[in-house]
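User: Quick sanity check before I run a bigger batch. Here is a single chain. Can you write out its predicted 3D structure?
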Amino acid sequence: MKPPTDAAALSLDHSSVEELDAALRVYRRLPLELLGFLVLLLVSIPGLSWLGTALSPPYGVYILGQDLVTWGLLLLLALLYGLFRWRGRQVGRLLNAPEILSSPVFGLLSGTEIIAARARAMGLGWRGFYGPLRPLRDGR
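Assistant: Done. Predicted structure follows.
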């Protein structure tokens, strides 16, 4: 059996420019979502502390030996993990990258390298904060 000569046609590494731009949009939204989590953290922790004390003064509400603030922090950590997992799976599907889909949270960190390599192979690059892909200049 003769191996195929067109390896690019059989490769999973093929992505269109639209898919790469969509993956970059996911990365552009991520800091805003993390800022939203920070605001939620700064609002919810004092609010849960006040609520626990208001429901059962003077010590607060305890569930399984932990107060409402601890449970709120655990819930926020679970939501943050869910956000990273969801965004990692989105990037993995857009890039058709099995290494990101197998571990979406840690694969999210290496997604920009995959985008950059595929964009450079097409003669494209981004400027600024994960801006849209544009043709590279001759000097670069």
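The first strand starts at residue 62 and ends at 63.

User: Great, the batch can go ahead then.
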